[in-house]
Amino acid sequence: MTTEPLITLLIVDDHPVVRDGLRGMFESAPGFRVLGEAASGPEAVTRTAELDPDVVLMDLRMPGGSGVAAIRELSRRGARAKVLVLTTYDTDSDTLPAIEAGATGYLLKDAPRDELCTAVRAAAEGRTVLSPAVASRLVQAVRTPAPGNEPLSAREREVLTLVARGTSNREIARELFISEATVKTHLTHLYTKLGAKDRAAAVAAAYDRGILG
Hints:
Blueprint: E1 7-12, H1 16-27, E2 32-38, H2 41-51, E3 55-58, H3 67-77, E4 82-87, H4 92-101, E5 105-108, H5 113-124, E6 129-130, H6 132-143, H7 154-164, H8 169-176, H9 180-194, H10 199-208
Helix pairs in contact: 2-3, 3-4, 7-9, 7-10, 8-9, 9-10
């Protein structure tokens, strides 16, 4: 009779209650062994080197040092351990840096016990694991063009050319036979596409990227 291989864990979180809860959960589940704990990013790096776990359950925001910095350092060192982020935060400023730093997966702390155990097994095998909310954010980030990468429409180029000449919104509207409200809408789109905050910055960005001149 064959049994699943034992998966070893390092739990990283700055809250002792969270660490105790996770330790209890995994120690009561078959196929897991918790090798140790850490309360900060730097400690996680040190403990990973000492214990060589299969999976590191990593919190992100910790007073003693961030989880993202620890993930990046573990990747730099070529650590064997797979890092599975387990946090309460799912904003772009948290998810994207963690994945880019080398995290194998990203789950939120409200994940059910069975889902977390399954995720740890998947991470140990090198498979990517993402909570639905995080997966949606990553898809959106991929689909959203970075500033400067989305081409300008013909009308937007016309508006931009007139802006570069110092033409006012009212004069632009009169020359292009459109309303001032429409001019403002085109300007809003221009600012987004050029990564600019105002008319001057938009014109500067356009010259810099060869859109004008």
